[in-house]
Automatic annotation (TrEMBL):
Entry keyword annotation includes rRNA-binding: no
Keywords on record: 2Fe-2S, Dioxygenase, Iron, Iron-sulfur, Metal-binding, Oxidoreductase
This protein's name: Phenylpropionate dioxygenase-like ring-hydroxylating dioxygenase large terminal subunit
Superkingdom classification of source: Bacteria
Stretches assigned to the Rieske domain: 14-119
GO molecular-function term, one example from the UniProt record: 2 iron, 2 sulfur cluster binding
Amino acid sequence: MDNLKAELLRGLWYVATVGSDIAPGKMITKKLMGELVLIGRDAKGRVFALRDICPHRGIPLSYGRFDGETVQCCYHGWRFDTSGTCTEIPSTHEYQTIDLSKITCGAYPCMERQGLIWIYFAENGEAPAEGRQPEPPMLPGFAENDGPKLAIIQPFDCSVDHAALGLMDPTHAAFVHTSWWFKKNGAKLRAKVKEFAPSELGWAMVRHKIPPQNIAYRYLLGDNVTTEISYRLPGLRIEHIEGDKHQVLGLTTITPIDEDHTEVRQIFWASMGWIAPLKPLFRHLMNVFLGQDRRVVIQQREGLVYNPKLMLINDADTQGRWWMQLKREWTASGKAGRPFENPVKAKTLRWMS
């Protein structure tokens, strides 16, 4: 956590993009986990992910063309199917014998679930079924084919560790999230007491009732509104809010671009069908809030370049400690070939915010 760069965890599924960003027959290129990745959707709507480097001369395949079935390199016309296998080398003479099935650009396991495209980055070349996270998680409250209502993305000029620590920090809101329409002059700090418990690959703030003074929740979702917030590897913050009438799911994804650059998404699902006209407003507010988090981690980087010793305190920074403990245990258990053992223990945390 003291360093500018972060260890990138493998053997896990990462959110690469939102499914609606890629139409059938289209592809995009991204740098994820320090690797160039070509993500596409074939003519039948199936998603795939390839290593975005042609094995012939090393040029990115994303400069080429995609016909809905194969990607053609722009340099010499080599073609690759959606599994990464070479299907054509135009320069091959009729007397040459080349086993195309042995030529591949490389592919990543890729799955679309709940409107998100997930990519698996293996630890040692294993298939997900052979690894420690066989498939992406199912997010609570919504079906596999339910896509999000709204999503934004912002690049964070910091490591995944500092992005995660900032986003899970429970005490910064009164000082960072201030606007003319929200906490304009700061806010009076109030005592918070929350119960936490271990959950799959992370921990959760145990489901609890929303305070009655939060009238907006009751208006939108009905009575008896409760919420649960969970964090899990490799970088997911999941907030599930339920009322008698409706529910909302908020997902923040923290995906490494490389060791010291990260992309952060905020994504929302909602059971209410009337929010479409309000999307521009909601998108603006989401970008403002996330932009405030982004600004402060960029400012923080000015001090981190001097490699200071960071002094985390109990309770307010306990979740940051849990994050690093989870990462260390994931790495250690993988190297030892043993099952992952969640190091988080049930605990009551108290802070002012």
